[in-house]
Amino acid sequence: MAAPAYPRKTREIFTHHLDSRAWNDFVFREGDIVIATYAKSGTTWMQQIVSQLIFRGREDIDVHRLSPWYDLRVLPPEARQAVAAQQHRRFLKTHLPVDALVFSPEARYIYVGRDGRDAAWSFHNHHSNGTDEYFQLYNSGLPEGFPVLERGPEDPHEFYRQWFDGNGFPIWPFWENVRGWWAVRGLPNVMLVHFNDLKADLEGGIRRIAAFLDIDADAETLALAVAHSGFDYMKSHAAAVAPRGGVLWKGGAETFINKGSNGRWRDRLTAEEVEAYERRAVQELGPQCARWLAEGGSYP
After folding, report:
1. Can you give the pTM of this predicted structure?
2. What per-residue string of b and e applies to 166-196 under the rule 16 or more CB within 10 Å gives b?
3. How far is C-alpha 287 from the geometric centre of its chain's CA atoms?
4. CA-wise closest residue to 57 among 183, 182, 221, 168
5. Which residue of 91, 166, 225, 244 pairs with 52 in a disulfide if CB–CB is 3.0 to 4.6 A?
6. Average of pLDDT values for 8-34?
7. How confident is the model at residue 103 (pLDDT cuts 50, 70, 90)?
């Protein structure tokens, strides 16, 4: 039987948020876990789930410190050094597309998908509530003349329009992120999880994630993981899971962990805008991937 054809890195990405070069010297270990998403698609949720499985339901897990966004351009060097020193099973976060990521057969990759309209609406809350420090951080240290991070419209509908027309503006492209991970879904060390499916059946989703990670979660661990990964629990413990404890957002960590809900766009987008999104999803992703991204469920 032929060995799987693992993807190779073909480009670097450098933006106000991303620096794909961070992975170039990363030394993988057997069993490393990489949690990948487009922004506001369930990244922190999945980090919490994985932390609960690794640490058997403990409540004192400093998730944002133990599981940094590894390709974040402004991540302090000591955060990456701390990852290298970790002795437990490591679990890291990325927002990179597959072709800008160093991909290792030794690692397990979990990609969380979410309808782009929901991700954009959620990102609007995240972004519009950023403090001045938030924008100063991401715009610091950029080359002269380099595109900076813009705040964008206060109205979520207008924000979505710019996001859609600009393919992910003001952060990074949306369609290529989903398309690349969908293309590698058949690899033995890749699992695709949908935001909707976790909302519909959190316990079942955690069971499947544990099986994929070869973690034998007993009944007590599973019950604790479910209890500690629910929205209400995460909202009340937001400072432990939000990046930097939530200090970069107005209202703090509870703003970062906002509503966890879908469909807020339904009463705002026109029929023409809905049709334009759905048509483009099929054009960019193909009908099978577009359906999965919109609805969740099993995928071929």
Report:
1. 0.94
2. eebbbbbebbbbbbbbbbbeeeebbbbbbbb
3. 23
4. 221
5. 225
6. 98
7. very high
